[in-house]
């Protein structure tokens, strides 16, 4: 039953033109522009930016899951689901799984652009582990999106998701190399979930394991966004 | 997914003393309602009478502040989880980016013994829309998709909140035909409406709701009779009841009279026994411009829902202000 629901919601998400453009096309285009304009970037930045933009796309797609929830609340679809035999738990699980599936197109598309267009060369296992860590690392952002989607109106969720997305992307260093940042911003950046999210991938590309600090910071955000999602859900899901 | 064991003989719906308060408004104010299996019941009331809130309580979407709700002898959540309930909610907007066939098919698979999606679409009269996107349909078409969603699970109880609100006349007839054929298979149907004719034509029983309370419960015929089977009207001027005479208070004491309404110079009496009322009026010389007519269902509805807070002019009758008591013998509970 949850799988049926997952299939339905994934289908609905992939038909969302806004999602496809914002979550998949934009990160690919930005990646290719940022690494090829003005004489082109060096090999390191081609790889680091690939991971940053894949992370950016994954975050956008993950947040979008919350936008979907807000939309389903406003149309009454969540209320309709409550009078089907599906349990609230199954509905939430289906939604979270939808988030997990719909971050994949962005990750795959940007990594493909790196390998096929920008000539990034990595061992096969590195590609696989980078994709996997980006996939797992997107979970906190799905929870943040769900927290917004269960708490706010559809319109407010769209705005808040966008602000979160842009702020976290820029401050986390997904768009520009951290080296260009002033010192204070660089130290702030190391506490953002996005910065640590991308580090999961860049560490693998450099042939290292992710640092303990990266895992700890991400886990902290995971717990924070997770609690936010649970509190928001408890507050509004019953009246959805 | 198994049926609840307690659900074999219990009534489809049993609400006992249900109360739901929103701020200062008692949206549902002490409702007792029992619906037997296989019955088709209309919940009739004006906008804001409490119909939708009562339906929310019934479906377990809202918890009553007081009282209990049981569907097939179990809590609403259990009946819903067991797939015994299907519903069409009032203000749902179309689910975006999904085709009608995908949506109805998905809902079907959440139920333990659904009908084929195609059958539900055919019953709802929208078989040709299966491949169309739900959010690109007209209001009437979308309404019928919601009907298909409500019945595709083949639930024992189907609840329809103002199902014909967005439909034109023709679609309305087609809708009621489908609904009746679903009900004929032994399913229990509860629908809300503010159209009297719809309630009368399509329900075995009409439950009239006003200000969060049930003010009448019976067949259309019973309601007509209970509200005062007939209407007797006459001109007051020059009779013993005009302002120069004894006034109109005495009229409500005449034989058969259950309620009295004075508009300008004309008195309208609702009566159980028009013959006795007319004879009594004749004895008092009060038959100028006399008119005797059977009460329409509209008259019955207005009489049943007339309360002090409404603008009904000069409703002067002990009976009309307490319609529940007056109708008590009617209740089929």
UniProtKB/TrEMBL annotation, chain A:
Compartment annotation: Membrane
Domain (ABC-2 type transporter transmembrane): residue spans on this chain: 9-194
Pfam families: ABC2_membrane (PF01061)
Main location: membrane
GO cellular component, one term: ATP-binding cassette (ABC) transporter complex
Keywords, alphabetical: Antibiotic resistance, Membrane, Transmembrane, Transmembrane helix
Membrane topology category: Multi-pass membrane protein
Record GO terms (molecular function): ABC-type transporter activity
Segments passing through the bilayer: 17-38, 50-70, 91-113, 125-147, 159-181, 212-231
PANTHER family: NODULATION PROTEIN J (PTHR43229:SF2)
Protein name: ABC transporter permease
Organism: Streptomyces dioscori
UniProtKB/TrEMBL annotation, chain B:
Name assigned to this protein: Sulfate ABC transporter ATP-binding protein
Molecular functions (GO terms): ATP binding; ATP hydrolysis activity
Entry annotated with the keyword Magnesium: no
Membrane topology classification: Peripheral membrane protein
Keywords: Antibiotic resistance, ATP-binding, Nucleotide-binding, Transport
Coiled-coil stretches: none
Gene3D superfamilies linked to this entry: P-loop containing nucleotide triphosphate hydrolases
Location of this chain's protein in the cell: Cell membrane
InterPro entries to which the protein is assigned, alphabetical: AAA+_ATPase, ABC_transporter-like_ATP-bd, ABC_transporter-like_CS, ABC_transporter_ATP-binding, P-loop_NTPase
GO cellular component, one term: plasma membrane
Main location, first listed in the record: membrane
Start and end residues of each ABC transporter domain: 13-236
Stretches that traverse the bilayer: none
GO aspect biological process, one term: response to antibiotic
Top-level taxon of origin: Bacteria
